[in-house]
């Protein structure tokens, strides 16, 4: 079972002063790749997330690069459906290599870690142009402080709220603790 203790044990939870992909600062960082590099634990986390969608017909899964691609692949593998990858092109997301969902397709949007919902919103904007049906959103770790509303059912494998701060009001900056950037953007 995926628990906070398991994540700590595999080095997926770090403590310090971190710059998040969202631009916010936090004393807690989720190094998702410690989970994504463990197929057994990833499969377990995806299974826990999918328990929220037991009877929802899903025809495809979309995940944003980079970590969301690995999650999308595993979700699609477990469901026996196709995975689509929303890659970054400038400030927006696109489907490349002729890998786009067909109109009307029932899709699940997935990602690895939820903080502000920015990546998921980018994917939702992308899929609107393809006239698909979004049936839900799934994330492995929800670190958001307050529940985020997307307009679709949200399923999480593990909810671990972690406080984050706008840079100008970050108490860690005010204490002079060095800032670490670990994200991919």
Characterization of this structure:
The chain has 185 residues and is α/β, with parallel strands linked by helices. The chain has one domain: Rossmann fold (3-Layer(aba) Sandwich). 27% of the residues lie in helices and 31% in strands. The protein contains six helices and ten strands. It has helices spanning 4-9, 33-36, 39-50, 67-79, 118-128, 171-174; strands at residues 13-19, 25-30, 60-64, 82-89, 92-94, 106-114, 133-142, 154-159, 164-165, 180-181. The strands form two sheets. It has a six-stranded mixed sheet, with helices on both faces. It has a four-stranded mixed sheet with strand order 9-2-1-10. Strand 3, helix 4 and strand 4 (82-89) form a beta-alpha-beta unit. The longest helix has 13 residues, at 67-79. It is globular and about 50 Å long. The relative contact order is 0.21.
Q: Could you give a short description of this structure?
A:
The chain is α/β, with parallel strands linked by helices. The protein contains six helices and ten strands; from the N terminus they run αββααβαβββαβββαβ.
Write the SSE topology:
Elements: H1 4-9, E1 13-19, E2 25-30, H2 33-36, H3 39-50, E3 60-64, H4 67-79, E4 82-89, E5 92-94, E6 106-114, H5 118-128, E7 133-142, E8 154-159, E9 164-165, H6 171-174, E10 180-181
Parallel strand pairs: 1-10, 3-4, 3-6, 6-7, 7-8
Antiparallel strand pairs: 1-2, 2-9, 4-5
Helix pairs in contact: 3-4
Keywords:
6 helices, alpha/beta, four-stranded mixed β-sheet, about 180 residues, globular, Rossmann fold, six-stranded mixed β-sheet
């Amino acid at each position: 079972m995926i628990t906070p203790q398991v994540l700590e044990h595999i080095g997926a939870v770090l403590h310090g002063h971190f710059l998040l992909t969202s631009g916010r600062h936090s004393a807690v960082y989720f190094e998702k790749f410690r989970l994504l590099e463990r197929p057994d634990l990833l499969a377990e986390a995806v299974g826990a997330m999918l328990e929220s969608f037991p009877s929802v017909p899903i025809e495809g899964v979309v995940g944003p690069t980079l970590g969301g691609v690995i999650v999308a692949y595993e979700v699609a593998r477990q469901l026996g459906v196709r995975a689509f990858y929303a890659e970054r092109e400038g400030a927006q997301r696109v489907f490349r290599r002729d890998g786009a969902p067909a109109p009307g397709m029932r899709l699940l949007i997935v990602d690895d870690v939820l903080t502000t919902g920015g990546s998921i919103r980018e994917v939702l904007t992308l899929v609107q142009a393809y006239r698909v049906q979004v049936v839900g959103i799934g994330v492995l770790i929800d670190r958001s402080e307050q529940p985020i509303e997307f307009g679709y059912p949200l399923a999480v494998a593990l909810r671990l709220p972690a406080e984050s701060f706008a840079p100008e009001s970050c108490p860690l900056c005010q204490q002079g603790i060095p800032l670490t950037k670990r994200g991919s953007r």
